[in-house]
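Subject line: Sequence and fold of a protein, written as structure tokens
Body of memo: The sequence and its backbone structure tokens, given next.
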Amino acid sequence: MAYEERQREALAKYEKALDKLSIKESELAALGKEINQYTVDIEAKRQLLQDIADAKASMQLLISELTPYVDLSPSESSTDPAARKGEYDMHGLIVRGSLWNLIEVLTDEKYCTQVDKSFRQTFFLTYHLHSPPHTVYETLIKRWRSRDFTQHASLAKGLKKELERQAHLTHKCIVDLFLYWTDFFIQDWQLEAALVSKLIEFMNTVLIPQGWKKEVEELRKNLISCLGSLALLPSQKMVIGSSAKISRSKIPSPLLPESEEKKASLETLSLVELARQLALHFHSLLCKVTLPELYSATWKSPKEAAKMAPNIHRFLDFSERFTSFCTRRILKEEDTEKRARLIEGTILLASHSVESHNVAGAAAILKSLVNPMVRRLDQTWTEVDPKIQQRFQDLALRQNSADDGMMGMDMELKSSCTSSPGVPNLEVILRHIDTILSEERSNSTETHENLLLSCTLLRKLSSQAVLVYVHQRNFYRLHSVPTIQAQLSSLKAVPLDQLQELSLRCQPPF
């Protein structure tokens, strides 16, 4: 059915509802006058108060019946899957729905504050799976306009006031969503200059004229945090101040004199300082990973990943190169006792990395220690301190038994409100995401035409993506040593045949 025909039917029902509402308003006025006559009969007064409450309830019911007819959008027709109602479970949680349905839920204050408090975070962590940022933005704007009743001058006074109250709540939710989006998901805005322009235009032409000045100021601050400044958008007239500087008063100094920084090398640096620099390097790579990349299966193929998921490719590639560096460092030592000391140092480096919450770094280091070319060196391992060997076994067991990307450490780190920096094992998280998506594809029986988004799927994906998102927002307060960072960047993978040759030289086969 065409939108115009649906609108005519809606207006006819709208007129009938107005008649009913005018009757209810008359009843309320009459009851109000009648109640003043009862100054002694308390029971009669109580009954009249109940009647007024019932009349108000009836009025609210009529308003709720009427609102869907007023809240029509031309872009939603009965044949459009986006116009289908979302599906909910017995607890009121949305289970399946179109993007429009999800936006309706996100702009329902009661749902987001009482029914599913984490759904807002779930949505923004996973919407890239089904929609680009500009589509989400346009849907939010469409939702704003669908709740704008300023043009309905013919509305009855009581109805108009109630609808405006409801519209204000919806508009507040939309503004809050923009604040949340620009505050917590800055990558979306850094990568979409056109989206920033649209938001600034909306702030200038809609929000400021309608009195949302305080919220606009908060949005301006968030945009400063995203972009540093809006010099990228010279056509905009909005005045943006300078971004706040990060305090460095509590950053520990590196464990080597400043005069020796230029001479520092990965081979001679103290284990604690190397663990710090390694954490900084892994974290810098993590911060560049985007949410769309997490949901791309291309990361499994190095060639495709380099094009479609370049930041994930760089992260995983560096992890492999550092594993190769640690393996070669052990195998190239010809003296058995010195080689044992190197193994001890590698174990302690993994331990320091865990203490720094650099799980990705610890995993890369442990991978070198469990490499068969290192594990086969029985004579060397007998020289390793038993206590340090026990620490290695504990770390390996911890990694294998807690397949959650954080080695089971500090469960509070999974909360979005954590302030602790860290680097999760991205490879583990990617495997979990791939498994979730594979299961969803195998269980899905819907065609593309009638596909509704599975919110159960989004919640599962969110539980993994949040481990990346949380740690991207929290930075290590450590001093970066440029010389060491440059050496880490320039590490090269050692060919497998070279490692095998070194291993055989360390301990020839019997």
